[in-house]
């Protein structure tokens, strides 16, 4: 074999190795449509450095983060809103701890609140909350009338009829339940790759970003995105520094809905969560 053939063969082998390495750095993720019954796949490239792999994540999880109007960051001519004291929405971050093999549901209360629940395999009578934005205690659930009615029991009992037909026999919780002020909708979600969640503790004045719990997936070294079966649950977190992050909505609202879909900024508190006394918590609305 002459030298040119050898060089050509060498380049061919190197190309095969590089393609294999690139493919090994891609993950296939499964998504579920709004009815919770159709699955499809997309490919994403895994970030080289993951926040959750760092030894110290306390800068994220050990502090409150306040939310404020961030439009000035990209347009200094805009007239911004200022929120003071207990008007200011706050965020906390925590690590996700979900047993392997669990079914994870994203739920919304009307259009006011997002939260997540998981159901441990073979433990059909329990739904466990992720975080504390909605409830701290697990739900006991019971289906009745061939799954046309559901009863959810907590310390404050809840029951509701299904709205519309049952779309998913394998996951009977999927769908909308109740009516009016207690209307709830549950959708199945894929939480693979989510190592942190954030909780927005109250309504953000003038904004369409909902309060509640958001599961986070890291897509690059300094960027997280929420996973959501609901379009208005899609947000992006962009890390500016150790003490500042941008919160960018990735959705649009229908014409008949009001609220700003624009940039917010989150700033980390000086003190750690365990350093706030009762008076400080009351002033900042952290209790």
Helix count equals 3
Structural shape? globular
- Count of extended strands: 18
Gyration radius (Cα, Å) is 22 Å
Looking at this protein, list some descriptive labels.
two-stranded antiparallel sheet; 18 strands; 287 residues; globular; 11% helix; 3 helices; 16-stranded mixed β-sheet; mainly beta; Lipocalin; disordered N terminus
Could you explain the architecture of this structure?
This protein has two domains: 46-96 and 193-287, Beta Barrel (Lipocalin), CATH 2.40.128; 101-190. The chain is built from three helices and 18 strands. It has helices at 3-24, 58-61, 278-284; strands at 26-32, 39-45, 65-69, 90-95, 103-109, 113-119, 126-130, 139-144, 149-153, 158-163, 175-177, 184-189, 194-200, 211-220, 223-226, 235-241, 244-249, 264-268. The protein has a 16-stranded mixed β-sheet that branches. A two-stranded antiparallel sheet has the order 1-2. The chain starts with a helix and ends with a helix.
Short note summarizing the structure:
The chain contains three helices and 18 strands.
Topology readout:
Layout: H1 3-24, E1 26-32, E2 39-45, H2 58-61, E3 65-69, E4 90-95, E5 103-109, E6 113-119, E7 126-130, E8 139-144, E9 149-153, E10 158-163, E11 175-177, E12 184-189, E13 194-200, E14 211-220, E15 223-226, E16 235-241, E17 244-249, E18 264-268, H3 278-284
Parallel strand pairs: 6-14
Antiparallel strand pairs: 1-2, 3-4, 3-18, 4-13, 5-6, 5-12, 6-7, 7-8, 8-9, 9-10, 10-11, 11-12, 13-14, 14-15, 15-16, 16-17, 17-18
